Amino acid sequence: MTQHLSGSSPFLKPFFLKTPVRVVNPLGQRRHTLPASEFRNLTPQDAISVFEIEREAFVSVSGECPLTLEEVLRFVRQCPELSLGWFEEGQLVAFIIGTGWDKERLSQEAMTLHVPNTSTVHIHVLSVHRHCRQQGKGSILLWRYLQYLRCMPHPRRALLICEDFLVPFYLKAGFKEKGPSAISVSNMRFQEMEYLLGGQAYARRNSGC
Question: How far is 2 from 181, CA to CA, in rounded Å?
């Protein structure tokens, strides 16, 4: 069953925009609302939106999607707790999908496999809707995701692969380079990156985990 963890982790709790958003309804009556920006685990119902954002972001650049629609569906069913979506006014604007892994380095097998209850999380994809890019949302979502992993009982590190031009982004987020990846996709080569989830006890004690 898909877990909705917004009540159990401070990093998934809704927050509200500081400035009210004015909405004009068809009758001409104006009302003020405070639409929540919500962080929650993804569900199978989110899969189409996830894949559309992913396809637009990656196909135009590399010609390949990190995950097919079938893989998105499988992973959000197998390990919804390792996914995180950012929703504004109910619409998905950014997401991360991860799975469990049980070896020191990522291999081709890691691209399609989830190993439950392991100390390593493989981050398959981080993507932001095209209308929400250049706003820092990717960095914010990644930070929230890593803090959220700290509150979980098993994860002790996160691994991912990325192209060379993305290495500075992940270094700034606290990842370290592990060297060239053994994984290749359509002759594309990648760097493997690692983030150590240190300070779990401190995070739980000071954040209500």
Answer: 32
Reported as type and span, the H/E element at residue 59 is: helix 47-62
**pLDDT tens-digit series, residues 34-68:** 457 899 999 999 999 999 999 988 866 666 778 99
**What would the mean pLDDT of 153-174 be, rounded to a whole number?**
96
Two structure tokens written together for 37: 């920006």
Asked if 88 and 40 touch (Cβ cutoff 8 Å), the reply is no
Supply angle C-alpha 170, 175, 180, rounded to 5. Answer: 85
Question: Which residues touch 166 (CB under 8 Å, ≥6 apart)?
Answer: none
Q: Measure the CA–CA gap between 140 and 144, rounded to whole angstroms.
A: 6
Separation between Cα atoms, residue 100 and residue 25, nearest integer Å: 46
